[in-house]
Amino acid sequence: MSDSNAACIHPSLCKSLVSWACSLCDLPGGKRLSSVLQNGFPQALQLSPLRASLWGELHEIDDFRKATLSSRRQFACVSALEACALMLECGVEAAPQGLRLLDVAEMVSAEDDTRPGTVFNDLYKEIERAFRKLELLLPPPPPLPVIDREGFIGHALHAVNTATLQGWSPVPAANTPPTLREFYSLALAPSHPLHIRGAISHWPALADPSRSWCNLSYLHRVAGPRTVPIEIGGSYLTPQFSVACVGLREYIATYLVGEGSQAPDSTVSHHNHHYLAQHALFEAIPALRADISIPEYTAVSAYPPNDQLSGSGFTEPSIKAWLGPAATYTPLHKDKPHNLLAQVVGAKKVRLLPPNSQLAASHAAQPPCQNTCTLTKEQLDSLGQCSGTALGMLFSVLLPGDMLYIPPGWWHECESLSTSFSVSFWWEEEQQT
Ligand SMILES: O=C(O)CCC(=O)C(=O)O
């Protein structure tokens, strides 16, 4: 390895990784980890078969993110060790593989509070630095299309099959963003959905042409080297559902530009979708996080003390990305937190039912998925046509710049009408004493 190709991994980082690994050796199955640690810092060649075998164990269920904590912890740690070993052994050329290993480890262990976050982040920084060094040596990628806003949205709106909205009433809409006080009285206090037009038009992701998320070359450049979880199959309730780890570049090329971006014009299209859904993308990619901002409405407490509208009674919002081609679909379900769903690229149709909906409750899936309703899109279409108004069915079509407030407990179903990129902000009130 020449000096210019050397990767800079600080020895203290290797030490911290080994002590993290040692702390996991007593977990069920941890003997395999202790055996690779016997001779000090292990080599990538020793770690790769162990990682593969732990990966196999995680995939004994459809969604690896729900596997046991102990196997997820060990997998994350072995992957981080392997990424570090590869960088030490191969230099900057190993950076793409190192990033991939860390991204997958991050997805698998995201909810694990015991993961030593700083070790993980420091390793990310070292590998990303090496990656950028490597990129300078490579030819620039060919330009990708810019999603043309006007024509594109017109096309998407054309795709709203109005028959699917017969009987559904529009969610009340504010044509300009309400003040915090108005938001409180129109939406938060009555716990009613509100469609806010133009609420996020000022975000750099929409307003700054050099950072526009419509520009696939921009997304490719900023986020392309990263690996993300892609949900395959229409609903997590179906046996066909699975989650794959895919490079964002590959996902953009196949599903946003290539063949996969053409939604088949059939009622079953959503059963075969590939959706980057509900992913904490912005924690992994600070450049994308800088293109958005947390809406002020998330700071309005539902229990305003002494008539003060903003206060401390709320949690930091959890920010999730939803990116996919036309026809990506999220089945009717309800969540506990407040939600602001912001539409950055393309159009999305959202249909809602109130929390007390007998219809949705009587079709709730079996535990642990009881917050999801088994009614299909087609069943909801025909129920709307027969008795939508009586059942309190509401809908919104979100366009770029719009945001939809979905109060806790409201059932909601989402369908992308075009290539779509949305961001959700979930937040909860802190318990009142
Ligand atoms: O956009 C989607 O597909 C689903 C969004 C959603 O369900 C949510 O934000 O809770």
List the helices and strands and how they pair.
Elements: H1 11-23, H2 31-37, H3 44-58, H4 69-90, H5 95-109, H6 117-137, H7 149-158, E1 169-170, E2 173-174, H8 180-188, E3 194-196, H9 204-207, H10 216-223, E4 227-232, E5 242-247, H11 248-257, E6 274-279, H12 281-284, H13 286-289, E7 318-324, E8 329-333, E9 338-345, E10 348-353, H14 358-362, H15 377-387, E11 394-398, E12 403-406, E13 411-416, E14 420-427
Topology order in helix (H) and strand (E) letters: HHHHHHHEEHEHHEEHEHHEEEEHHEEEE
Kindly identify the CATH topology of the largest domain. Answer: Jelly Rolls
Strand order of the largest sheet: 2-3-12-9-14-7-6-4-5
Shape: globular
Radius of gyration: 23 Å
- Number of contiguous helices: 15
Q: What compounds are bound to the protein?
A: 2-oxoglutaric acid
Residues in helices, as a percent range: 25-40%
List low-pLDDT spans: 264-268
CATH architecture term of the largest domain = Sandwich
Q: How many strands in all?
A: 14
Strand content: 15-25%
Write down the overall mean pLDDT: 87
Provide an overview of this structure.
It contains 15 helices and 14 strands. The protein folds into two domains: 135 residues, no CATH class; 208 residues, Jelly Rolls, CATH 2.60.120. The longest helix is centred in the N-terminal third of the chain and has 22 residues. The strands form two sheets. A nine-stranded mixed beta sheet has the order 2-3-12-9-14-7-6-4-5. 36% of the residues lie in helices and 17% in strands. It is α+β, with helices and mostly antiparallel strands and 433 residues long. The protein binds 2-oxoglutaric acid (AKG). 2-oxoglutaric acid (AKG) binds next to strand 9, strand 13 and strand 14.
